[in-house]
Design a protein that fits this description.
By secondary structure, the protein is of the alpha+beta class. Strands 1-2-5 form a three-stranded antiparallel β-sheet, with helices on one face. The protein has a two-stranded antiparallel ribbon with strand order 3-4. Strands 6-7 form a two-stranded antiparallel ribbon. Helix 1 runs antiparallel to helix 2 and helix 7 runs parallel beside helix 8. The radius of gyration is 28 Å and the shape is globular.
Length: 212
């Protein structure tokens, strides 16, 4: 009963708790003060909290600290690029890509509005031109897997960046992760199908950036 009373007070006023515990220690059987390091995660710690968790600064994390720790665990060790704010949307098209005659097509739309460069871009404070572009993937198991990886890369701002174009102006451009922007056999070879090694190549490139 004494332990329960200590818990109720020690969450709020540490100094009072310590005084109560010390008094109780002298008057009755000594209360075992077990550190949080030993009790955290045990069945005992689910019902009781010992005063030393709070006195020694080893109590539960605050809400702000929990959020910070969660974000750090998910993004702290991941590569993050300089891609500006944009949108990525998916479409299903009932047509096949060259080299994938039995599969439908996944069309991914990317949209970036004009904006102002940050300190991570070539000329901070200056304007940059936006971009609207697409990429195509076969709708099969491997193609769907690549879509998931590209979504992660987009969230980590790795698919696009702001760079100086051939006219000397800054604009949103793709990074070194290749995108197939043509759904037929027209255009440069690097941007179109058929390309039997493309999906494997993209998976490897993304894996090298920690996306898998």
């Amino acid at each position: 009963m004494c332990m329960v009373e200590c818990v109720c007070v020690c969450v709020r006023v540490t100094v009072v708790v310590c005084a109560l515990c010390e008094s109780e220690h002298r008057r009755r059987k000594p209360i075992e003060l077990v550190s949080a390091e030993k009790t955290m995660g045990t069945a005992q710690s689910k019902d009781k909290m010992h005063c030393t968790r709070y006195v020694d600064g080893k109590g539960p994390l605050s809400v702000e600290q929990q959020v910070e720790k969660d974000l750090e665990g998910r993004y702290g060790t991941q590569l993050v690029g300089h891609q500006p704010e944009g949108e990525m949307t998916l479409q299903h098209e009932r047509k096949s890509l060259p080299g994938y005659p039995k599969d439908d097509t996944i069309k991914i739309n990317f949209a970036f509005a004009d904006g102002i460069q940050t300190e991570k871009h070539p000329r901070p404070g200056e304007k940059y031109h936006g971009l609207k572009t697409v990429t195509f993937l076969p709708q099969n198991i491997k193609g769907a897997a690549v879509v998931g990886l590209l979504e992660k890369a987009f969230q980590q701002k790795l698919l696009f960046t702001v760079a100086t174009d051939s006219s000397g102006e800054e604009a949103v451009v793709p990074t070194d992760i290749p995108l197939k922007t043509s759904c037929d056999e027209s255009g440069p070879e690097s941007l179109r199908y058929p390309d039997p090694d493309y999906l494997t190549k993209v998976v490897k490139l993304l894996k090298d950036k920690g996306i898998k």
